[in-house]
Amino acid sequence: MNAQMEMPSEDVLRIKLEVLRQEHRDLDTAIEALTDSPFDRLTLQRLKKQKLGLKDRIAQLEDRITPDIIA
Predict the structure, then answer these.
(1) Measured between alpha carbons, how far is residue 36 from residues 2, 29, 30 in Å?
(2) CA 36 to CA 42: how far, in whole Å?
(3) pLDDT per residue over 35-44, tens digit each?
């Protein structure tokens, strides 16, 4: 039961972080391609919202990986 309750290792978190960063870059490329198209405004808005969500998840993972340092 304890094995299921353990926190993911730092290596797993780093892999997840890199996957999220790649998704963020892919969305950035897609948004850039759609920026020139006047017909896909709704899709563009959805992609930007998704990109912001990824940015938040990336920040959360970075906080979990980087220990808090009391200065």
Answers:
(1) 52, 12, 11
(2) 13
(3) 877 777 888 9
